[in-house]
Amino acid sequence: MENAKLIIIPLGNRLENTFLRQKLKSLPKYERDKISAYHNWEDRQRSLLAQLYIHKYFTKLLNTTDFLIERTEKGRPYLSSSQLFNGDFNFSHSSDKILCGISTHGKIGVDIEKAHLIDLSITKYCFTQEEILYYKDLRFEERLSFFFKIWTLKEAFVKTTGEGMSVHFSDFGFDMDSWGKGKITLRNQSKISSSTFHFKSLKFHNDFFIGVCSNEIENLNHIELQKIDRFKVF
To answer: What fold does the segment set 4-233 form as a domain?
Structure first.
């Protein structure tokens, strides 16, 4: 059965340096170097918790520690050459929440953002003209929510394709007629990919917006969302 799940891990208080260094030793050198290069402890800890979780997940799933997680040239992580796993995984974080998305088949991209006040004139740089017109017709109190829904979905899309922030968000968008009917339909993505993509937008704790994208899992409506204690990743 094709499905996907989302796992939210809290950042929590700062881990002791000795404990952190001990846990780093269990990761590949390139991941240790990447984590250690972060300047502030929050970024180091977010990355460490995400990596520890996915390594623990694959150790249990594959019943072995003999697997390799690599990265593409653009930095997207993936499980290298496993015949037992045809899916994908992806990370995101915002504030004190770390999000991991896992699919059993195909690619998955996820994004999480904590809602906060922003200069909404930024929409002209990341919305299509169709999205801008829809946005302007919304009541003022609806605009911030609409922005974060669109933003997280677009982030999830470019993370699914592996293009990341090299793609201009104003170059592709969503059909606003479908949006008004509760459907998320991508349009203008042909410059990026000719594949069909499926989306889900949801909220967590009222102030976190989550976008999910998959190129194979059509029904994301029943996606599993689970919050775990951070010490379960150790």
So the answer is: Ribosomal Protein L22; Chain A (3.90.470)
